[in-house]
Amino acid sequence: MINYKDQIGNHHIFETTPKRIVSIVPSQTELLYDLGLEDSIVGITKFCVHPIHFKATKTIVGGTKNVNFEKVKVLQPDVIIANKEENTKEIVNELSQICPVIVTDIYTVEDNLQMILDFGKLFSKRVESQKWHDKINFSYQDFQNFIKDKPSKKAAYFIWKNPHMVAGKETFINTLLELNLFENIYKEKGRYPEVELKKIRLEGDPDLVFLSSEPYPFKDEDAFEIGRFTHHAKTVFVDGEMFSWYGSRILKSFEYFKQLHGKI
Question: CATH assignment of 2-139, given 3.30.479.30, 3.20.20.80, 3.40.50.1980, 2.120.10.30?
Fold first, then answer.
């Protein structure tokens, strides 16, 4: 018997190790694969793009915000993996009628490391999860050493257009911005606030404007439009997965961040 407490405090009891998994969080789908659980994963979302072959070998159950209940039910999962930010409470409650739904809640690197160990215990992959934990933790410590003498720079991280939206406080993106010594000028305006470009100087006048590759694919014309409302900011296109995906992806993020600092 497995007693499991997820990251929002819900308790779950499993008689045996869950064998059929539906994941409705892209970054956690990738983590489950990296833990050696490919054969156990039976359902994913259309946004679960890593590993790429899953689109052809796994059942697509919808998106992260519009999961098809009947498709999930037919798969007869033992457990569903969700996330507090990615999935709505309504979706989690509905899917809980099918089987236990594990909800993660990731805001810090430490939260991420704990999730990896928790999954190792739940899915009998303790050795694999400990290896990933140790690799990520080593790279995390190494990056902190790399960044410690870098100058702090004010930054804005845009995720959407029409309306323009940015990453604010209590987000994993903000945590990684702070780790990079990028002072988020919008960190006190809520999690994903709408902003007015004409006010960007008054609200912080950033040194750097990051334009994420997801969920909105910014173009050169967007960089020009946003940049002209700043005083002297450098606009930089960044890989959104490196700033917003937790799980095993963050191991690649630390090297990506080193390269990013070399460019700016």
Answer: 3.40.50.1980
